[in-house]
TrEMBL record:
<dbReference type="InterPro" id="IPR001509">
    <property type="entry name" value="Epimerase_deHydtase"/>
</dbReference>
<feature type="binding site">
    <location>
        <position position="285"/>
    </location>
    <ligand>
        <name>substrate</name>
    </ligand>
</feature>
<feature type="binding site">
    <location>
        <position position="216"/>
    </location>
    <ligand>
        <name>substrate</name>
    </ligand>
</feature>
<dbReference type="InterPro" id="IPR028614">
    <property type="entry name" value="GDP_fucose/colitose_synth"/>
</dbReference>
<feature type="site" description="Important for catalytic activity">
    <location>
        <position position="112"/>
    </location>
</feature>
<feature type="binding site">
    <location>
        <begin position="11"/>
        <end position="17"/>
    </location>
    <ligand>
        <name>NADP(+)</name>
    </ligand>
</feature>
<feature type="active site" description="Proton donor/acceptor">
    <location>
        <position position="139"/>
    </location>
</feature>
<feature type="binding site">
    <location>
        <position position="143"/>
    </location>
    <ligand>
        <name>NADP(+)</name>
    </ligand>
</feature>
<feature type="binding site">
    <location>
        <position position="194"/>
    </location>
    <ligand>
        <name>substrate</name>
    </ligand>
</feature>
<comment type="function">
    <text>Catalyzes the two-step NADP-dependent conversion of GDP-4-dehydro-6-deoxy-D-mannose to GDP-fucose, involving an epimerase and a reductase reaction.</text>
</comment>
<keyword id="KW-0413">Isomerase</keyword>
<feature type="binding site">
    <location>
        <position position="209"/>
    </location>
    <ligand>
        <name>substrate</name>
    </ligand>
</feature>
<comment type="pathway">
    <text>Nucleotide-sugar biosynthesis; GDP-L-fucose biosynthesis via de novo pathway; GDP-L-fucose from GDP-alpha-D-mannose: step 2/2.</text>
</comment>
<keyword id="KW-0511">Multifunctional enzyme</keyword>
<feature type="binding site">
    <location>
        <begin position="108"/>
        <end position="111"/>
    </location>
    <ligand>
        <name>NADP(+)</name>
    </ligand>
</feature>
<comment type="similarity">
    <text>Belongs to the NAD(P)-dependent epimerase/dehydratase family. Fucose synthase subfamily.</text>
</comment>
<keyword id="KW-0521">NADP</keyword>
Amino acid sequence: MSSTPKIYVAGHRGMVGSSIVRTLLAADHPASALVLRTHAELDLCNQAQVQAFFATEKPDQVYLAAAKVGGIHANNTLPADFIYQNLMMQANVVDAAFRSGVKKLLILGSSCIYPRLAPQPMGEAALLTGTLEPTNEPYAIAKIAGIKLCESYNRQYGQSHGIDYRSVMPTNLYGPGDNYHPENSHVIPALIRRFHEARVNQAPMVTIWGTGSPKREFLYVDDMASASVHVMNLPQAIYSQHTSPMQSHINVGCGQDISIAELAQLVGQTVGYTGAIDFDASKPDGAPRKLMDSSRINALGWQAQVALQDGLQQAYQDFLKNHA
Ligand SMILES: NC(=O)C1=CN([C@@H]2O[C@H](COP(=O)(O)OP(=O)(O)OC[C@H]3O[C@@H](n4cnc5c(N)ncnc54)[C@H](OP(=O)(O)O)[C@@H]3O)[C@@H](O)[C@H]2O)C=CC1
Ligand SMILES: C[C@H]1O[C@H](OP(=O)(O)OP(=O)(O)OC[C@H]2O[C@@H](n3cnc4c(=O)[nH]c(N)nc43)[C@H](O)[C@@H]2O)[C@@H](O)[C@@H](O)C1=O
């Protein structure tokens, strides 16, 4: 490998992928050594296209931040899209990367890989110890397959081909570049839009899905990007001290969670909405709680930097600039 690795960021126009690109450029990685393709240019579900792309470009490193992504409603109503597309993207990218000689690859999974009622906080060892949350089981199964793809290629080819494929499991993310779709987005962008529109239209009430009692841990997107680059660049000797061949994934969270009712108050304050809030319990709550134990990545030298109140301000500014 040359001293400046050629890096492919898959999903570079998405929320996390675009932040990974910003992070690499800010660390003086030359733009000319980044390989980027839009979805229209390269459909990662298409095996022939993916094999041809890797055979031609031969990157040194790959960040897989492309995925079929959405909130509780999208996951619940489009289960076939979530399992099929995520399985295909991961299998195509990992195998084509391997065949073209990629030594270092990082997959982004999700905290929903853990059982619905896993003991809190959820450590990496909780994987495959119980039943998954039904609203996102298909997506979670695909994300678990992503971890196992990396581990299986490492176990079969790590020694012979010198590959080292890793995976990180982000908690719920938010920030600039998020998807603000009214139904298909995650809770933070959905509430930013709903509270903003209620303030502008002087609506007396904003309705929140579910009971408000579920708790979630939220991480600002730039923290997720810095964690991804950090894990990619860890020396193998250090990474393998903290992981094992069949439990190699790394949780990435901020270590604190809040209830959806508390989050709604915070988003309302951020947006400047002064009306009432109510809850529609006919909508699904999803997992009651999914706080991750991030002590593994903390021991590896990474900590979240951005407090939720500050990150919400940044996200709202992004909404006002690009989506209002
Ligand atoms: N957002 C969150 O709260 C969380 C995200 N994650 C994970 O983090 C990663 C990044 O998520 P995030 O940035 O939020 O997602 P986004 O939806 O913002 O970005 C995903 C990107 O993937 C691209 N993409 C989707 N399908 C294909 C395809 N078939 N071929 C090529 N490109 C494709 C999209 O392009 P296009 O839009 O043009 O289709 C988009 O640029 C994902 O793996 C996700 O599962 C994990 C936990 C929480
Ligand atoms: C990241 C994670 O994202 C998804 O899981 P989730 O944690 O349930 O994510 P969510 O952001 O959609 O909801 C969080 C909570 O918030 C409540 N909630 C209130 N009001 C709105 C609302 O208006 N929109 C949404 N989406 N949720 C709302 C909602 O009822 C739930 O209790 C996975 O499918 C999977 O994709 C995954 O890995």
